[in-house]
Amino acid sequence: MTTSKPISTALVSGASIAGPALAHWLARAGVDVTVVERAPELREGGHNIDVRGAGREVLRRMGLEEAVLAHTTGEAGTRFIDDRGRTMGSFPASTSQTGGPTAEVEVMRGRLSRLLADSCEGRPGGVEWRFGDQVAELDDDGNGVDVTFASGAQERYDVVVLAEGLRSRTRQQVFSSDGSTRSAHVRELGAYCAYLTLPREPGDDDYWNWQLLGRGRSAHLRPDGDGGTNGLLTFLSDLPGLDELEPDAVALVVQRLYAGTGPTGERLAAALSTQPYYFEALGQAKLPRWSQGRVVLAGDAAHCASPVSGMSTTLAVVGAYVLAGELTAPGASLASALEGYERRLRPLVDAAQNLPPGTPRLGNPRRTAEIRALGALVGLASSRAVQRLKLGERLISPPADAVDLPRYEHLEVAPV
Question: What is the pLDDT of residue 153?
């Protein structure tokens, strides 16, 4: 059913990146927004993310670009290291808004989430934050959505947006009327990642140190911008369900897998027993549509391109801007708004999800010969002569500008 009146109330489920970004824009347009998040508070931890191209422009329009730049990790560049601990090549941080393995804007996920959430204060519409709760049931009658929360509370909204991540449970309730399972919405990439933050050691520097360990394993050390070191372990595996194990079991599996890999891999694996960490199976969200009635998907729940794309955060902030702009456009019907959301954003999503051939195996070689071949390519690309041509930025340039970013005049108000 369509409606000619702009939405006045919205529920956003999820408070990572897409959720707070969407709340900012909807509130700026005068919508009363409720953000529900199952965690007891805003989750300020997390891993290193970057914002590129069109995403930078959205931050600029939000009035947040300078604040984000002031909270970057200070990553100086990317260094590729082989399984013997030898540097194969290195690339300085990008000086463009799009290219390079280390972007100009590298920021911890939790810091960006906090900046986005804080930017919602003082907007024409109100933003209510409901932590420690989550959506239990949705009843869309065509004129609005009745929501029952896990706490037992019941509310009604003009639209509900699910920004719950790649493996959203609520998405399954709404988008599986054909009997498909939650996994049917995800294209698995055959790899797992463990993210954690460690105390900084004397040998840690301000580079992204990416070590290839063979047998489909890699280990990464990066600065977190707050005096610590951000760690990442990535390994190839077609075995499903590791991300559903208890944390102690995951730690044991990873520690055995990284035994004998050397100081970096063993340091990170051991820390899984002492430090909080996040573990996930890499995948992409693949859905033929991003809305069902008055329930809409945003962020990774709609279009996750996976961390290896370098585009998930950019997609989240651009998608939030486009969705809010379409939903609050004067005179727009709900049907036309949701059609516009998909039409404008799909080209960027399609480009982002079109990963380079061999990804993620390319960055996690199984055989020694593959490590040597990648080392030769990295060594050539990082040579002084070739770097003058900025080949590194050209080789690793996520399609962050593959969208004609619209400008919504009704959102063009001075940030408060």
Answer: 98
Residues with Cβ < 8 Å from 34, sequence gap 6 or more?
A: 9, 10, 11, 12, 127, 128, 130, 155, 157
256-to-190, 270, 316 alpha-carbon distances in Å: 19, 10, 35
State how far the alpha carbon of 74 is from the alpha carbons of 68, 143, 336, in Å: 12, 48, 42
For 85, 214, 218, 390, the CA distances from 373, given in Å and listed in that order, are 16, 13, 16, 21
Confidence of residue 161 (pLDDT cuts 50, 70, 90): very high
* Residues 393 and 100 sit within 8 Å (Cβ to Cβ): yes
Nearest alpha-carbon partner for 22 in 303, 311, 328, 317: 317
Q: In the predicted model, is pLDDT for residue 123 greater than 80?
A: no
Torsion over CA: 102, 77, 223, 235 (sign): positive
* C-alpha 223, offset from chain centre: 18
Nearest to 314 by CA among 371, 399, 379, 235: 399
Confidence of residue 381 (pLDDT cuts 50, 70, 90): confident
Is a pLDDT exceeding 80 seen at residue 208?
yes
Backbone angles phi, psi at 378, to 5 degrees: -65, -40
Is the pTM higher than 0.85? yes
Q: What are phi and psi of 128, to 5 degrees?
A: -100, 130
Over residues 194-217, mean pLDDT: 97
